[in-house]
């Protein structure tokens, strides 16, 4: 067989293991979810060897999707790590055969501690499966290893069953994008869902502001001083009424406007996009990309300027790539178009 043919054979075998697993999902799965949902402080995933490595992944997936969990090596558990398990926890024990010695040794202690056990194993008559309060059958199928020795299809099925458990619990509790971001603050999704306009906007003395009757010359000086490529225009009551950008400047020069005598409210953009301080930065970026602008005024409910969000601040923070304004449908966009008349 060629390398490609061998790879295809492995994938076919592991695919069949997953198909077999799907047929084994029954009311035991419902009971396992209910046990974790109603009586569980934490899920302690116990395994050893390849099952232990898969257990690490299952625990990580559970934890990141709202079910507190961590993994314990079965061998280490016998030498002190069992102290990590407390009343109210649920143990998820992984053993393909259901006879793993290091796990079987733990069962009397778990019984004494009154810790319920959910098992992942292929033999419902094994010591682990019969001890467990709930056994989830991972099925028996051919390993992809031609020697039938290296755990391959069995570990794939185990990992898929762990994913199914985590996602079923996630869906039941109504876990949201924001919930996920709270456990991933350092990742790109965390930034997209946690960083708000207020975190990145220029504020205070860094905001380029001119009054409506200021001249074009005064406005250009303010733009140069603040370095954001635009200036916000306010009226006598300090309400935002428009913005002046490089595009407005080009149009002013094309129309031979006098720099010293032309009032900025005559040549500013009045129907400008604005946003609020509590808007998600990713949604504000979407509006900026859609409208091909680099500066976005940030207003309060009284149309007073709180800051200016600049494209450079967004990109520097690692927030980029929005394709539309409201990237996440469960987040209501507060970016709007403000018209002065």
Architecture overview:
- The structure is a single chain.
- The chain is of the alpha/beta class and 341 residues long.
- The chain has 2 domains: 3-175, Rossmann fold, CATH 3.40.50.10490; 193-339, CBS-domain, CATH 3.10.580.
- The protein is built from 15 helices and 12 strands.
- The chain has helices at 3-22, 27-39, 49-64, 74-77, 101-104, 107-112, 127-131, 153-172, 177-182, 188-194, 197-200, 216-226, 246-254, 281-291, 311-316; strands at residues 43-47, 69-73, 90-94, 117-121, 134-137, 209-211, 230-234, 240-245, 271-274, 295-299, 305-310, 336-339.
- It has a 5-stranded parallel β-sheet. The chain has a 3-stranded mixed β-sheet with strand order 6-7-8.
- Strand 1, helix 3 and strand 2 (69-73) form a beta-alpha-beta unit.
- The protein is elongated and about 90 Å long.
- Residues 322-326 have low confidence and may be disordered.
Please specify the SSE layout and strand pairing:
Blueprint: H1 3-22, H2 27-39, E1 43-47, H3 49-64, E2 69-73, H4 74-77, E3 90-94, H5 101-104, H6 107-112, E4 117-121, H7 127-131, E5 134-137, H8 153-172, H9 177-182, H10 188-194, H11 197-200, E6 209-211, H12 216-226, E7 230-234, E8 240-245, H13 246-254, E9 271-274, H14 281-291, E10 295-299, E11 305-310, H15 311-316, E12 336-339
Parallel strand pairs: 1-2, 1-3, 3-4, 4-5, 6-7
Antiparallel strand pairs: 7-8, 9-12, 10-11
Helix pairs in contact: 1-8, 3-8
